[in-house]
Input
Amino acid sequence: MKHIPFFRWFVTLGLVLVGCSVGVYLATPDYPEREQVDLTVLNEAPDGTCTVRWTDPFERVEHTGPYQCDRYRPATFKAPDYEPGTDLGWDVGYVFAEGSQQGELYSLADDEDIEASIALSDQLLGDRPSSHDLRARGRQHPLAGPCDRRAPDGRPRGGTAA
Output
């Protein structure tokens, strides 16, 4: 009976995977640490642009500034439903936890290299078509559930509209 060096191949494959993960880690940009904070929305435009107030978790000082709120958050978090009798809403955001910007509100729009990071992750994962791309070509994503099937005119199939 011939001996198969299974353990040796297993260790070699493990070392290759560790090496690949180190390479990916070194290729990604270094982002500063962020801390999650609650935002009190003072006013909000329909496009999601809003003015918010937050408490700096490091110096315990209140700040007010502009922010791009999630305009698709539930209505229960928007004024006037969030706190009846006030014009306040709620959202969540992040502040910088280190460096010269510590305590300042972080916005995704401030990232200059976010497109490069997205392109790198897409390149590492491979180009797989999204459900939206497949629907535009008249096909369905192989993992789509019944609620993802739409009639040719764009309406959902199988139910009645309320």
